[in-house]
Amino acid sequence: MFKVNENYLKLPGSYLFSTIGKKVSAYQAANPDKQIIRLGIGDVTQPLAPAIIEAMHKAVDEMGHAETFHGYAPDLGYEFLRSAMAKNDYQDKGCDIQADEIFISDGAKCDSGNIQEIFAADSKIAVCDPVYPVYVDTNVMAGRTGTYDAKTETWSNVIYMPCTKETNFAPVLPEETPDIIYLCFPNNPTGSTITKAQLQEWVDYANRVGAVIIYDSAYEAYISESDVPHTIYECEGARTCAIELRSFSKNAGFTGVRLGATVIPKDLKSGDVMLHSLWARRHGTKYNGAPYIVQRAGEAVYSEAGKAQLKDQVAYYMNNAKTIKQGLKDAGYNVSGGVNAPYIWLEVPKGMTSWDFFDYLLEKANVVGTPGSGFGPSGEGYFRLTAFGTYENTVAAIKRIKEM
Amino acid sequence: MFKVNENYLKLPGSYLFSTIGKKVSAYQAANPDKQIIRLGIGDVTQPLAPAIIEAMHKAVDEMGHAETFHGYAPDLGYEFLRSAMAKNDYQDKGCDIQADEIFISDGAKCDSGNIQEIFAADSKIAVCDPVYPVYVDTNVMAGRTGTYDAKTETWSNVIYMPCTKETNFAPVLPEETPDIIYLCFPNNPTGSTITKAQLQEWVDYANRVGAVIIYDSAYEAYISESDVPHTIYECEGARTCAIELRSFSKNAGFTGVRLGATVIPKDLKSGDVMLHSLWARRHGTKYNGAPYIVQRAGEAVYSEAGKAQLKDQVAYYMNNAKTIKQGLKDAGYNVSGGVNAPYIWLEVPKGMTSWDFFDYLLEKANVVGTPGSGFGPSGEGYFRLTAFGTYENTVAAIKRIKEM
Description:
Chains A, B: Its EC number is 2.6.1.83. The structure is a homodimer. The first copy, chain A, is α/β, with parallel strands linked by helices. Chain A contains twelve helices and 17 strands. The longest helix of chain A is centred in the last third of the chain and has 27 residues, at 304-330.
């Protein structure tokens, strides 16, 4: 008689954004006349940039002719895209990453969920708290996380690194030594980040204790301050301890296009075994590449026209971030984030939980945000708003919040 | 100190098609003047059908305007595609499958590799031998397969079901009871299939012993005989024991477009737990949907124009299959397959191994095929050729083989 993976059954409730989606649908169904503004899920609203649209049309045409048709992609992804990334994201910034250390994928969510597979089953993970739920949940599914304590909302075999206003929203080196450390800067959900000097401390620590850092740089395009690193490979020694996850979702609006990449330097080893080889094996066995059309779209992100258009797109969202942050400040909220990231993190009013505030905001202002507690126990008492709406909706949402 | 997933290290050598790729590259580099014809990997060569190209252009345009832009897709995939599949692939054939039992993905390879995750770690799998390598390899990676015997090329905890000319290339019910049974019909690599009555025996068996059948129907579009089932849900009782994997790669040429689907009926349960819920949880947590543009391309597969164009495309490849089969027969080979599948399975000459014949064919005829032993120990002595080349190349390859 077949049996299921019991680890799946340990997961409490459904995935955060599914829960939000259901709550919003229920509210809308009960109040069909209300105009709900969604500043919750990190989905973008601006259309794809013209340079990307043009590249995609061209690629679609290629697929329609036998001479230019493309079937299965190369295992690691097309060389044209990997080279563009190696040059623009790394080498031009003085970082030693080669094109064959980059694996193209259909998105950073998949990669951040799948990367744990190449590590031992008894690996101990460390995560920032609050954190993007995928890191912990996928380790739960793999049986790495012990038992769940519903009261503290924590797993017994996970090292939580609180990131609250008391720590300036940055993690401190853990007392217990982890095997795998998930870091995401600029951070989702807090919108905060750390300096290059601070990240260097993490790289030094990981090399010292023999841990791997899984560095999620999905929001690097939003960095505005000069001492904030755009990639972990700006730090010395990162090639022997760090994997970097890259996304096209937020810098180029690819949430519905699906493209990402994982960088694994060939110097990152366990004994003689390169993690690069293990990930290559996973790619070759369980994955069949991102669509040709999408990889061409990714290439256009690095064209001169693409770069200029996307700079404007990021600026558009960051103007929203400024609007939200200033508006909330004016309304008397304590806020952080929004300077190097499209996320604004606010403290909910005293006496309310994060979910109380979610319901309150949905009902009183018809605005959807994300409860901080959905990202981990230290997120309780906080709330995330995103800058990915339209400017008009953002202004309208802030006006409603002010009038609440 | 971090440790790797040791199961990955148990895998012997690299993935079959990577090995072939490397051998062919080396030969081509050493013989730059030779015109190699590839009838090895199951990649298609015909361009996308006009109805699909048109749908993709339209979808690209939508992505370029804020009013019609699409961000994150719904967890299970867009309703327009799931409904088209439910109607065309199931309901019109009298099978009770609903749109919300279909999960859209980026391809059957990913799904066939990932599906094992929702089962217990100590599940025992049964596979046809020879078989698509992904089924076994992904279970190796998950630690389900015991130890590898290099001499027999088998894993200790796997039930192999030989499919050779002695069994008419069909598996027989195993003596030992499996938890999970992988079946693929029409079969890759043998090109053979089983009748609806034979498949009904498997469904009855699975229901009787409490096993789950993972049914890979990637090649159903190539079925030409009337008693061969197009889906396992044609069999009574399949809703309580079968998961079906569907691909767009071979029926619509989507190898470089990437689209697939997994069907999990809500009646398929372990105790109170629906496998549907577990897969939904996996989708929600580790995956972010196939691109909007690609899902629209999938929808066009089911349009009237799309259907007509793809019928011609399949006929084109099946004409190649006929050419290969007849040519090989004329050349004195024992061949099977090629009637309900785009694969021709031939016995290699006495005294040669499958890899010997691979090298022989590459060197003497500059034709690339796939060694049967790459698909499992019972594939030794056999060789796969695919009908996915162009007609011109197919004719030329057969001419060269005849002249060898």
